[in-house]
Amino acid sequence: MLQTARHSRFRPLAAALLGATLLAGPAFAREAGFAQAEWAQDYSSPTTMQVHRSSTPILSPDTIAATEAMVEKYRAIVSRGGWQAVTGAAGLRVGSRGPAVAAVRQRLIVTGDLDATAGGAGVYDSYVAAGVKRFQARHGLSQTGQMSPATQAAMNVPADVRLRQLETNVIRLRSYSGDLGRRFVITNIPAALVQTVENGQVVTLHAAGVGKIDRQSPIMNAKAVEINFNPTWTVPASIVRKDLIPKMQKDPNYLTDNKIRILSGGQEISPRSVNWNSDEGTRYTYRQDSGADFNSMGVVRINIPNPHGVFMHDTNSRGVFGDDFRFISSGCVRVQNVREYITWLLKDTPGWDRAHVEQAVESGQRIDARLTQPVPVYWTYITAWATPDGTVQFRDDIYKRDGVNVPSTIEAPTPVASAASTQPEVFEPGDEEN
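Structure for L,D-TPase catalytic domain-containing protein, as requested:
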C-alpha cells in the first residue's frame, strides 16, 4: 500500500517532467536523461583511491626503497607504450560528457588514479572527479576534482620523461642516505614544502614560498641556530640594486610607506637627499622596521648561517601559500604556519613552549631565542619520489636541473589589476649572491 501510494504521489511530477521535456526539446531531454543516470548510479568514490598525508620523510630509507620500486613500475608502463595525450579536457567537471572524458578516464586508469571498473565510461562522474583529485594531489596541484589547464598539462608529460625523473631523483635521494640526525628539517624546493622530522617521522608539514627561477633557492645543508622575533630587515645589496632603487625612481614615497630607513654611518638620512638616478643609492644601508603588517619577514626569522646569505622566515603576504605556484622569493624560504614551525624548533630549548612563542610574537619587541641544540636543515631538490603506500609524487623541474626536459605544468598567477592597485608592493628577503 505504501509503495502504491509513493508511486501515485510521483505520477504528477513524472507527467510534468515528460511534458516539459517534450516542450523544451532535445536540450532539456539530455538534462533529464543525465538526471536519471545520476539517480541510478552509486557515485561515492572509494577511500582507497585517496592520497593520504604520508608520515614518511622525503629524505628517508623508506622513500628511497619506495622510489626504486616505482622506477620498476614506470619501466613497465613505458614498455607497454605509456599513455595517450589528453586534449580538449580543460574545464571538464562532474556532469561533462564526450570523448575527452573517456581520454581522462583512461589516463587516470593507467597510473592507478582510477579503478577501471568504477563509474560509467561516458560521463565525468564523481569517480572521475575523485581520480582527478588524486592525480592533482600527486602533482602538487589544487585538488578541485575539475580538469584545469595545469592538470591536463601534467597528464601529458610523457611516461618516459616521468621514468627518467624517477631515475634521476633516486640518485639524489641516495645521496641523503646517511645519518641526518634525530631531529631535522627538510625544504624540498620543487615541491615548495617544508617537513619537520623527528625519530624518522614527519611531525609538521608546511607550504613554503621559495626562490624565483631567476633567484633560485640554493641546495644546501645548514643548521637552525636562532629564532629572531619581530625582526628588522637589512635589505641585501643585490635587492637594493635590482629592486629598491628602481622602485624609488618610480615612487619617491616607497621607502617611507614601507618603513624602510636609510642609514649612512649609523645615522638615518632622508630619502629626498639621495639622487636615485645615480649609483648613490648603492652606498647606503637600508633597514626595514619590525612589524607584522609591513615587514617582509613577518614576525619571525629563522637564522640558518650559510654562505648564501639566505634564511627562513614568516611573511606579511601569506596568500601565496594557497597558490600552486610558490616560486616567488629572492632565495629565502617563507614558511606557512611559522609559529608551529618555530615551536617545534624550540622544543628542546627551556622556556620556549607554544605559549611563550605566542607571547614573544605578540609583544612586538625584538627578542632572540638561541636553540639549545641546533637543528640540521636540508634544502633539497627532489622532483619525483614515492611513499611506502605506493603513491608517487611529481613536481615541475622548476630550475631545470633534471636534465630530462620536463615540460612546465604550472605558471605564475596573473596579477589582478584591481588587486595590484590596492596591495602595496613589498620586498622579499633574498640571497646576497644573487
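DSSP finds twelve helices and 15 strands in the chain.
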